[in-house]
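DM from R.C. (forwarded with permission)

"hey, sorry to bug you on a friday — could you get me a structure for this? deadline for the figure draft is monday and I only need the backbone to look sensible"
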Amino acid sequence: MNGSDMTTEPPTLTVTGLRKTFHLPRTSGRGAVHAVAGVDLMIGRGEIVGLVGESGSGKTTVAHCVLRLLEPDAGAIALDGTDVTHLSRRKLTPLRPKMHMVFQDPYSSLNPRMKVADIVAAPLRAQRRERPMSRRKINAEMDEMLAQVGLSPQLRGSFPHELSGGQRQRVGLARSLIARPLLLVADEPTSALDVSVQAAILNQLADLQRDLGFSCLFISHNLAVVHYLCDRIAVMRRGVIVEAGPRDQVFRSPSHPYTRELLSATDVSP
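My reply, with the result:
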């Protein structure tokens, strides 16, 4: 096959010129907050990209805009080559299984009235119209997904309050991955957990990404975590990305003063 016959798959995610401003009440005295002020970001197939920066830098706003949980003010968002920036809710619905999110707090992100089995199976039930599936098949996939995230099938009938923090976050992972998304957005997924549990969840996430092949936008303020998990790093400050590149390059030769400031407070060897 010659070069002209070869096809190249599009990146999983391409973000161009993303902007989002929040207009505050006049009583706040601030007027408007430019949370995201022109962000460009690309995540290739099977790649984990870390988005790092201090609290308030705009990381979570980027994540919410990417998933269309927030409407961007300007810019373009393409998922698997499809522009999703201005798709209506109806047209976006069939694409929802391709992108899922793991939230920071594993307790508040789970419905306390739902059992583990129902929480994890919910994405499959939600897409029955586009992907018909029997109850038996849904249950089988749910059991398989629980095993993949390291949870016993015996927990299917448990409620979130009956689980540990680490178990709840594994449930969140299972729910986000059961539909086999192309893109997983993980927003500080270990920051609410005990240090001893964080490592186990990170190892689990790395194993799942290797086995399932999804791309991941991993948001964190912890450079040690990002160094362990990510292929590339984008450093965000005050709504813009000030530096981006391969992990080792950013850690060995940071070009921006803010990146150097973050690294100086982190005990990580390149």
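R.C.: lifesaver. The chain has nine helices and ten strands.
me: no worries. The radius of gyration is 19 Å.
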